[in-house]
Amino acid sequence: MESSQEQNKLNSEMLEKLVNNQPPEEVLYEVAELFKVFGDSTRIRILYALFGNELCVGDIAEVLSMSQSSVSHQLRILKDAKLVKFRREGKSIFYALDDDHVYHIMEMGMEHVEE
Amino acid sequence: MESSQEQNKLNSEMLEKLVNNQPPEEVLYEVAELFKVFGDSTRIRILYALFGNELCVGDIAEVLSMSQSSVSHQLRILKDAKLVKFRREGKSIFYALDDDHVYHIMEMGMEHVEE
DNA sequence: TTATCATATGTTCATTCGTTCATATGAATA
DNA sequence: TATTCATATGAACGAATGAACATATGATAA
Hints:
2 copies of one chain form a homodimer. By secondary structure, the first copy, chain A, is of the alpha+beta class.
């Protein structure tokens, strides 16, 4: 892991304090998993298409010029991450953004990029 | 892309409007790239270690029980994404979170997960 | 200038991931 | 009930990615 002569800048007391202040491993992992879902341009495009709109799968595919299969696969990932919700209406299934967190996280991303 | 008999829920006027309302492809791509950086538990751990602390590479490695090489590689990715900044002090290089966006994005992630 | 310490970089390898194609499910309608 | 339409699922393939190991860079101190 480290060479034996490594000279750290922090003493062991502060190091230990930092180690203990880390959130539980599980939480960090889940946060990473969440952002991983946002980390694909196809899914970002889908999320933006749903920004303020409720759309069925076929329409998303048409708006984004994607195959139905691809959209459906990605919607499943978004669904599992609780980023979108859906309801059935006849043969169609309509998707929408799940809650305000999704809006806010995307807005944050836009802000950081547009600098 | 779609079967010839596909019956969309939206008329072509609304579809076109949606298509035109999408942010530029480049922006969506950059947003995805940004979140991709957050989408790895190793990098999330590093970012959390830097939450309010300025640390040098060796200390990050020690705090997180990671190899120096691995930390350095990930720091480069964080640096390229402008999520961390750094300054040299003697032989050491100290890293810190770059701006408030980073804090806010992570806080959003935590909030969404802790529900 | 040479040796040393802290950090960075290059390469390889195993794994993950997104897309595509084919097919299955399942609700609505004839 | 049989057919059709909308969506979901499974398998396969290629591309991207993170970790590990070895090595390079570059600043400092002897």
